[in-house]
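Action item from last week, closing it out:
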Amino acid sequence: MKLRTVISLSLVSLIAVVLIQLGGMLYAFHAQMQEAEKSLNKCFWMSFTETVDNLVNNLPYPDNSIAIIAYAPNPKYKRIDGDERNKRTSQQAAQALQRVYGIKEIPLATIDSVLHNKLRKLDMDGTLTVERINVNTNEVLATTNPQVSNRNFAAVTSETAFTFKSRGEAVRAILSFPAKEMEKRLLLLSFITWLLLGTAVYA
């Protein structure tokens, strides 16, 4: 077999390996981000619920004693699973705190702090922010970390939890992973293959 034919076959084989490797890395990255989003959602709802419950449990009675309130399940929601019922209950409580009890807003810093601790227990490193947004206009009304954006390709965004539905106000969390670090890992994984391909092209 001629040398040129051998080199051509080697080039085709290496290009195929590179494409398969890149496809595999992109698939792994996508799967990892989906798993991160799922974990963020779970921790976000837990943090939101804990923050709202803490506000509710510290509502004062007229004599300045502390009210400890427990929610009873609503029969109307008995066909809804537990997680969905808890989400609805915490959002309704957040709105009642503002409408009925005059609490100005659900504290983002508290949600951020609780969520940060939960994510740290899961070894999810990244830069976190909790935002209050208007879901009708997608305007960011307040944020705990303005430097974090969901436009980053290595960022995941949680579901939104309404704090004042009639005004379209809700909160969400964004976790941004170090993009440069992820790019370095991708480059290191494909370095040997690119080196072989470069050698074959040079030959």
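Closing note: The mean pLDDT is 81.
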